[in-house]
Amino acid sequence: MTVGRDTSGGGVSRPTGRRRHSRADWLTGARITAVHGLFYRPEGRAGEPEAVEFVLDGGASILLTCAFDGTLGITSGAWPALPDWCVPAGLWEFGPLPQLPLPPYTGAWTVVGTHERRDAQDKVHEAVFRCEEGDFVVTGGDTVTIRFVRL
C-alpha cells in the first residue's frame, strides 16, 4: 500500500488510497477536468504542494503524493474530500496551481499515454501524463513538483 508523508516529524501516515496495479498507459483515454494542489496551510502556499489531485471526467480522481523517501505515491483520490492523512483537516486545503494552464476549449485534457520513471526498487520518482496538448510532469521529493510541458 502506498503511504503519505507524515509532516509531524517522522514516520509514515495511513494509506492514501487504493493502489493501482497496472503500468504503462493505465490512464489512456481518461479526461482530466481539473488539477489541484494540496497544501499544508501553516507553511503557506508559496511553495510546492504536498500532493496533487487530478480530477477526471465523471468524478473519479488520482492522487499523487510525496512519500517519506522522496518517491511518488499514486493512488485513487476522493475528490473533493481531503485524504485521511490530512490531520488535523483544518490545516490542509486544496488550492490552484498557477503554473498550470487552464483546461483546453473542450473542457478537459485527454490522456494519450502515461510514463513512470522508477528506481532499482521499482518505486516511482516521476510520473508523466501525456495529453493531446502537452504533458503533465509530476516529480516526488520533499514535496511534489508539477509542471506542464506544451508540445
Give the topology.
Elements: E1 3-5, E2 12-15, E3 31-40, E4 51-56, E5 61-66, E6 72-76, E7 92-95, E8 109-118, E9 124-131, E10 134-139, E11 145-150
Antiparallel strand pairs: 1-2, 3-4, 3-7, 3-8, 4-5, 5-6, 8-9, 9-10, 10-11
Region (Disordered): 1-21
Largest sheet geometry: 9 strands, antiparallel
Per DSSP, what share of the residues sits in E-state strands of 2 or more residues? over 45%
Order of helices and strands: EEEEEEEEEEE
Helix content: under 10%
Distance between the termini: 34 Å
Give the overall shape: globular
Number of domains: 1
Number of E strands: 11
* Structural classification: mainly beta
Radius of gyration: 14 Å
Give me the number of helical elements.
0
Assembly of the depicted chains = single chain
Q: Which stretches are low in confidence, meaning pLDDT under 50 for 5 or more residues running?
A: 1-22
Mean pLDDT: 83
Region (Disordered): 1-21
